[in-house]
Amino acid sequence: MSIDKLFIQDFRNIASVSVDLNQDLNFIIGDNGSGKSSLLEAIFYLGHGKSFRSSKADNLLMHNKLSFTVSAKTQSGAQLGVRKGFFEHLNLSEIRVSGEKQTKFSALAKNIAVQVITPESFKLFFGGPKQRRRFIDLGLFHVKHGFSDHWREFTRIHKQRNACLRTKTDLASLNYWSDVFATSSEQIAQYRAAYVEQLTKELSFWLKIMLPKVSDDIVIQYLQGWNSKRTLLEVLSQYRDKELAAGYSLYGAQKFDVRFVLNGTSLDNQLSRGQQKLFLLALTFAQAQLIAREKRVKPILLIDDVGAELDIHSRALLNNAIAEITCQVVVTAIDKTAVAQLVPKEDNYKMFHVKHGKLSVISE
Ligand SMILES: Nc1ncnc2c1ncn2[C@@H]1O[C@H](COP(=O)(O)OP(=O)(O)OP(=O)(O)O)[C@@H](O)[C@H]1O
């Protein structure tokens, strides 16, 4: 669900911000180090319970403070909030959804779907499989009902099987856990295959807007985590000694990946950095639109430092995509010229200026 009102306190260099966002499009303009990314990070934190930049939550806390707070009122009237306290090496999270205390961040994620694109995103995305796995599973979490229950169950089974492989003592237990691991992996793989197919169809629409010259030649390949010509149980039995030597599961749904292929070879080797960023934007827009359609909520898309890598022509293409998407979009840039191509003619947007962590409205 999109955010109506946002409140941030003691988060990085933001001492206190209370702001009404536009439902469709928001621009945050500010110099380097002013706090633009911190603002996006706070919104991202509300949807994910972590930062997109730093793995340590205490980096998010304003220097010399003991807790930070991020809260929001969504368009549907839900009040979401998280307060993270750091008291004598004790990290405490207080999560609330419309006044009710919650124990898990997933309670917040059920109410908002936040995706981010930063200047670093495409380097990470075309690197190791971690980011791609995260991206696909985030879509699945929001779009495919039942996936998160299956995933939780899979994670439990995976841990048990890894414990058997690590200790190597009880081979009867290993046989049992291999059986259930294979069944659970196949279920997860089916969910993912169906989702990747859905995403591929949606992507084609966004590529026609953002990368029209190559849109028909791009394919997403889904790699399920083991040889697709064989059952996982067959693979596990063939490589049993290898897995015992490694001490953990080498095959299964946890090893899945997706490859983006252009004319038969890896897309990132053929596209310029600007084009790679447009591809990633198209992919993220596709996922956000699927979430919007399936969940019937407006996802939130954060685009950090939009000027980086994108020339005027590319920004004009991005503008066409923003005009089409049913999302709440928040874009940051160093100056107004970087967003000139993105500002709509009608007045349905808000523009803010940020300086030393303080936000002021430029136009609405
Ligand atoms: N824990 C913290 N407490 C207080 N200030 C912090 C903390 N962490 C970072 N800062 C400061 O916050 C400022 C804002 O950082 P941020 O990354 O949001 O900048 P930005 O506006 O996105 O800049 P850029 O355009 O360079 O990316 C920086 O000057 C940084 O030094």
Automatic annotation (TrEMBL):
Keyword Mitochondrion attributed: no
Molecular functions (GO terms): ATP binding; single-stranded DNA binding
Domain of life: Bacteria
Major localization class: cytoplasm
Record localization: Cytoplasm
Binding site for ATP: G30, D31, N32, G33, S34, G35, K36, S37
Occurrences of domain RecF/RecN/SMC N-terminal (ranges): 3-357
Keyword DNA repair: yes
Example GO BP: DNA synthesis involved in DNA repair
GO cellular component: cytoplasm
N-terminal signal peptide: none
Role noted for this protein: The RecF protein is involved in DNA metabolism; it is required for DNA replication and normal SOS inducibility. RecF binds preferentially to single-stranded, linear DNA. It also seems to bind ATP.
NCBIfam families: recf
Name this polypeptide is given: DNA replication and repair protein RecF
Taxonomy of the source species: Bacteria, Pseudomonadati, Pseudomonadota, Gammaproteobacteria, Alteromonadales
Gene name as annotated: recF
